[in-house]
């Protein structure tokens, strides 16, 4: 079982326009609404591939009700904890070349009682050997230790703990020694306070986390693929070039695919291959991309030891 936790979920609306012109009235060519938030997206992707998963999230107001209805429609097992505040709504505006402008509401901090209810719901669904994934942003004013507290509870229950967040929440989580962390290059650079311009820079930064905390790092490099670093070594992988429909949710698909490869196929390198295949399929999928099984092509992913990778300078994501 994999349980995902999203403390600041969202109802995500995607609009496609011919071109984004500031100050002008424009017609959307396409619109789609999805349940959103990193942990929710990870659960949606895993559920679509038949992996036992439950997503735990706070839900409040009409947007919260709509988000939960979307999970029900998609057949995603979930525990929605009622909260006083309205669940936020986010908007993504996508242009034909894949350029995405995202407007996110900040969200509202959860109360201590609401946080306890969420933590209790998670621990009730996992046991030894299972995975708990704490993912996504936290609302402004929320204690940055919240994910670390859930992670410690998960570890006490015998579960493995994965983290995908940023900023102060990522920094606090790292001190609690998760089993797996999945930042992108920008998030890793921010939390470590160093510039990461080359693949060697990223490998060195990930090595520092592995050696200092004993964890596994999967770092998203945007158009340059992804990097896996653990105590056994460092590997770089890339997927085939595809027509980019929307980049929102690609990192979540990477994490979901990695957990699939790790838990179903059996190794971290299998996880890297699956993760990149899922992320590649996600960016070619409209909306907050959940990669359909028939669009995932793991055999098209190229993996090599990071030291042998031809990539040097990294592109901007």
TrEMBL record:
Annotated Carbohydrate kinase PfkB domain residues: 12-294
CDD domains assigned to the protein according to its UniProt record, in alphabetical order: FruK_PfkB_like
Gene Ontology terms for molecular function: 1-phosphofructokinase activity; ATP binding
InterPro entries according to UniProt: 1-PFruKinase, Carboh/pur_kinase_PfkB_CS, PfkB_dom, Ribokinase-like, Tagatose/fructose_Pkinase
PROSITE patterns linked: PFKB_KINASES_1, PFKB_KINASES_2
Pfam families recorded: PfkB
BP GO annotations: carbohydrate catabolic process; small molecule metabolic process
EC number(s) recorded for this UniProt protein: 2.7.1.56
Enzyme class, first EC level, given as a word: transferase
Keywords: ATP-binding, Kinase, Nucleotide-binding, Transferase
GO terms under cellular component: cytosol
Reaction catalysed by this enzyme: beta-D-fructose 1-phosphate + ATP = beta-D-fructose 1,6-bisphosphate + ADP + H(+)
NCBIfam families, A to Z: 1-PFK (TIGR03168), pfkB (TIGR03828)
Role played: Catalyzes the ATP-dependent phosphorylation of fructose-l-phosphate to fructose-l,6-bisphosphate.
Family membership noted in the UniProt record: Belongs to the carbohydrate kinase PfkB family.
Name assigned to this protein: 1-phosphofructokinase
Organism: Nocardioides pocheonensis
């Amino acid at each position: 079982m994999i349980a995902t936790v999203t403390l600041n979920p969202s109802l995500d609306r995607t609009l496609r326009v011919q071109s984004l012109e500031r100050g002008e009235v424009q017609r959307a060519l396409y619109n789609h609404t999805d349940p959103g938030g990193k942990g929710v997206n990870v659960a949606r992707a895993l559920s679509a591939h038949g992996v036992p998963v439950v997503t735990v999230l706070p839900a409040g107001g009409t947007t919260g009700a709509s988000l939960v209805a979307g999970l029900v429609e998609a057949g995603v097992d979930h525990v929605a904890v009622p909260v006083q505040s309205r669940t936020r709504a986010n908007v993504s505006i996508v242009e034909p070349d894949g350029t995405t402008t995202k407007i996110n509401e900040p969200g509202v901090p959860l109360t201590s009682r609401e946080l306890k209810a969420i933590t209790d719901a998670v621990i009730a669904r996992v046991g030894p050997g299972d995975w708990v994934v704490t993912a996504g942003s936290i609302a402004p004013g929320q204690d940055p230790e919240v994910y670390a507290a859930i992670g410690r509870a998960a570890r006490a229950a015998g579960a493995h703990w994965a983290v995908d967040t940023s900023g102060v929440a990522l920094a606090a989580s790292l001190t609690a020694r998760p089993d797996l962390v999945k930042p992108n290059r920008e998030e890793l650079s921010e939390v470590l306070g160093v510039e990461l311009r080359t693949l060697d820079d990223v490998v060195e930064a990930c090595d520092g986390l592995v050696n200092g905390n004993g964890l596994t790092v999967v770092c998203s490099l945007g158009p340059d693929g992804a990097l896996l670093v653990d105590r056994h070594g460092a590997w770089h992988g890339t997927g085939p070039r595809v027509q980019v429909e929307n980049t929102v949710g690609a990192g979540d698909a990477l994490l979901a695919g990695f957990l699939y490869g790790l838990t179903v196929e059996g190794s971290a390198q299998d996880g890297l291959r699956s993760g990149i295949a899922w992320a590649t399929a996600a960016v070619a999928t409209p909306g907050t991309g959940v990669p359909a099984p028939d669009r995932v092509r793991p055999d098209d992913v190229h993996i090599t030891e990071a030291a042998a990778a031809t990539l040097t300078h990294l592109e901007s994501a």
